Every structure is written in C-alpha cells, then in structure tokens.
Amino acid sequence: MLSELALAVCTHEGIDRRFHPLDTTSFALTGASIPDSDAPAMTITHGHAKDHRPDLQQAVLALMVSQDGGVPFVRKRWDGNASDTAIFQERAAALLTTLQRSPTPRYVVADAKLYNEDNAAHLLTLGFITRIPNTLNLVSQVSTQALRWDTWQRLDATTRSQRVELCHDGMAQRWFVVSSEAARPRAEATVKKAQQREAEAIEKQLLPVQATRFETPAAATAALDTLARTWHYHQGDASSLLDHTRYACQGRPRPTTPRKSIAWQRHAQVRPHDGHRQQRKHQKACFVVGTHMDASQVRDAEVIRAYKGQAQAEGGFRFLKDPLCFVSSLFVQKPSRIQGLLMVMTGALRVYAGAQRRLRQQLMQQNKTVPNQMHQQTQRPTLRWVFQLLEGMHRVRVTVQGHRQDLLEGLNEVQITLLRLFGEGVCRLYQISPG
Prior knowledge:
Elements: H1 2-13, E1 19-29, E2 57-65, E3 72-78, H2 84-100, E4 107-110, H3 120-125, E5 128-131, H4 137-149, E6 153-154, E7 159-168, E8 171-180, H5 183-211, H6 217-228, E9 234-247, E10 259-272, H7 274-284, E11 286-291, H8 300-308, H9 311-321, E12 329-330, H10 335-365, E13 370-371, E14 377-378, H11 383-389, E15 394-400, E16 403-409, H12 413-421, H13 424-429
Parallel strand pairs: 1-4, 1-12, 4-5
Antiparallel strand pairs: 1-2, 2-3, 5-11, 6-7, 7-8, 8-11, 9-10, 13-14, 15-16
Helix pairs in contact: 1-10, 5-6, 5-7
C-alpha cells in the first residue's frame, strides 16, 4: 500500500523513477522494551550503532528513495542487530520481481555493502550501481592503474573519472575510478595520520632488529630490508654496520689471539618517503563505482551521477533523526508500536521530500533565491530551513462593528517570496497576492 501511494505521488509530481538509492540507518530506543504478545515484530536489541549510541538498544530502518527529490518508495524495518550486508542481500532478492515488472528500466543504487560474492547471483539479474568495496585487492590495483594511465575524463569542475572494463564475480562490468577535489583534503588528513602511526610503529620495530647480532653482514642487511618492505610511507635514510669480534680465549686479546667468530649488527635511520606518500594520497582521494549494465542503457556520466544521488537517502535519514523532528530517540516501548511509528515517520518524510522538491523546482523555474543559514543566496534550501524562515508571523483577529476579520502581521519580503512559491492556494490562506 505504501509503495502504491509513493508511486501515485511520483506520477502526480512527475518524479523520475529510474534510479533508486537504497540505504539503512538505526534509531536508538530509550527505556526497556516490552515483548509483543499479539503478533511477531522486530527484535529490539543492541547492534552496530550508526548514531554512536552503543549503550542503547535500537531498531533498523531500510529505505529506497527516488534519486529525484529523495521521495521514499519502499521501507522495511529490521532487527536491531541486522547487518547492512544481510539487509542488502535480502532486499536485492525481493526487488528482482518488482523491478522486472516495471514498464521502464529501474536501477538500484547502494553503497559498498551491496557488492559481495554471496550477493553476485542476485546482482547478475538486477540493475545495480554501487561502490566497489576497498577491501577488494582489485580496487587498489585498478586505482593504481588509473593513476598511472592518467587518462581522466572531466565530469565537472571538481570531478573526473576513468573507465575500466573487466569481468568480476562472473559479470562483465564497467568500473569507474572517480577522483574529486572535495576528497583530497580528507585523503591528505588520512595519509598524515597513517604516516604518524607508521612512524611510531617503525620506532618499536627497529629496536629488536638493531639489538640482534647476525652471523653475516648479509643477514643483518636482509633483516632490515625485510622490515622495510612492510613500510608504506617511510624508507631507509642512513645505516651503519657494526662488527663484534669474539676471540678464542678469555681476557684482553693480543694481536696474535685467534678469532673465534664475528657478529654483525645493523643500525638504521628512516625518513618519510615523499613519493609513496603522494601516491597514497592520490589513491585515497579516489573511489571506484561499478555497474554491469551496458553503456547503451546507462552512459558513463550517468553511472557516476546516479551513485552521487545516494546522498538522497542519507538526507532523508538526517531529516528523520534531526532533534527538531523529535524522533532521534524513540520512547515507545512495544516493538509493534515502534514498527508502526517507523511507518508514520516514513510517510512524513514522503510529504517533506515532495514539498522540498516542489519548492526547489519553483525557485529554479522563477530564477529566484532565498538566503541560507550563512546569509548566502541559494536555490536549494532545505524545507526545514524554510520552516524556520517562516517563523515570526502572527494571526490577529479584529472585530469592527460586529464583523470579525483575521489578519496576518509580521510578514517580510523573504516570507512573501516563499509563500508565493507554494501556489495560489497558499497565497489565499496568507492573504497575499500570487505576485
């Protein structure tokens, strides 16, 4: 029923239903839960807390939304300890029939949890666009290869990509190594922390190696070289080889005292490897997006833009978990009631996302802007911020000679502009001209 309602909303609003971001989040619950006695429901328990409250039990919500506006299509509640991998596997299997019956091609967009070997059978028949997990060694190889080729295609002022065609998990796929300007500062910070941690680890690793006496100089050098091969951000700077001679007799040796053996000890200093650091920084600033769909169905640029649309699902979660919405923590104790509350919250998100999309469309069509929180003009305000801009209006009821009249007081130019964007019906309610 909820899916049918969402379909009707999208049809009425002309929302593009081609790409569907899929994601999950968790809601913390305060207080002890009361088991259901009338019907089975989800299990309220501890799990991976995405809102950083591992001390609280939680419920998990999975949403599939439209890339155009973030309007929810499908929702499903899960046990508090459900993993994203298991959720995405189940949802991929359930969506096969639905999407195959669709009159137009539809594609699921998700993060790296969707892509794994156990889910390959479902992905083979499901149109998907997903980030390829960095845990695959092939991702590092492909990124390194792309940096070496340096044949980037510019998508916009801040994003570029390279396409790699390959076969993985039994599927012919297109992988895109994506590099963005926004990711470089984060990559620089990540590499800097990793370099500091490695420097601390090297200091401890060198102690036993430098304290060991080896039988030959080659053995001492080989031990240090073996250790250096594990370093990513450092290299040897200077080293010295010390010899320790043992004589056949005790006491102070004479020039004629025969030698029994010689032990060798290697002392070394290290320094940062700038070349490796730059290479790692470039690798960390890249991520890989993959799809098995042919380029005739979805062009290269569409694949990357569709993956960036994954933020639509995350934006919906931010709305639901915002403190101003008063649902960041659930106080209802009975699991079946929590399940019902999650359904109501999804319905509220559907109304919110649809209204926000319509408002932004009107701003673009009329070439107007409104101030954001930083007092800069924008055509993409959040509806929550618009609600705050509309605060301060007062309804005044005036009675003159027995006739009552309601007046609105306190309207400013920004508020009048916003109200006109919602149409003539809203203008009549607020007693302003449509403009």
